[in-house]
Amino acid sequence: MAPTPPRRSVPKDRFSALFLSLKTQTYHDPSSRGPGSHTIRSIAWNPTGHLIATGSADRTLRIWNPEKTQVKNSTELRGHTGGIERVAWNPVKEAELASISSDGTCKLWDVRSKSCVETIQLGGEGLTISWAADGSAIMAGRKTFTPSNSHAVLTLTLVFSTPT
Question: What is the DSSP letter of 88?
């Protein structure tokens, strides 16, 4: 993988001018049938900037090529039985994607082979995920309910760790 270019700060007085010059691009997924049927809940770039992943309320996990905006040029990854809450790319492996769902699972995907390589049961509805900066571990947040009341509590769990 190519080294990441150094980040540069944008002076406050140039910030709006920089973003005004950028072109926007619309991605349309025909599986969207109306309001709320295909709500994208999460979007993320892969580390090289060559792919975009989206996760939707209707269980659609899609990989997009930012240069080709038609859905026919995207890839759908299937396996979750509930809405996808978050997607996150491994920061050091450009083809490894994690998704977390309200079905109570965190799935790891190899987008080259379009397959799920691991499913981790969370013990509650998945809400959020985050990779360690070196890609060695992933943290998952799940919704749990306490017996004393009906309020949801966010529980964070280390769900995946590679040997060092």
Answer: E
Q: Is pLDDT above 50 for 164?
A: no
Contact 4, 46 (CB under 8 A): no
Instruction: Measure the CA–CA gap between 161 and 51, rounded to whole angstroms.
Output: 24
Amino acid identity of 44?
Answer: A
Q: For the segment 126-159, what is each residue's pLDDT rounded down to a tens digit?
A: 999 999 999 999 998 888 766 665 655 667 666 6
Q: Which residues contact 12 (CB under 8 A, 6 or more apart)?
A: none
Structural contact between residues 50 and 23, judged by C-beta atoms closer than 8 angstroms: no
Is 69's pLDDT higher than 80?
no
Report DSSP state, residue 15: H
Distance (Å) of CA 44 to CA 14, 89, 99, 121, 127:
26, 7, 11, 23, 15
Would you state the torsion angle of the CA atoms of residues 147, 148, 153, 156, taken in this order, to the nearest 10 degrees?
-60
pTM for the model stands at 0.75
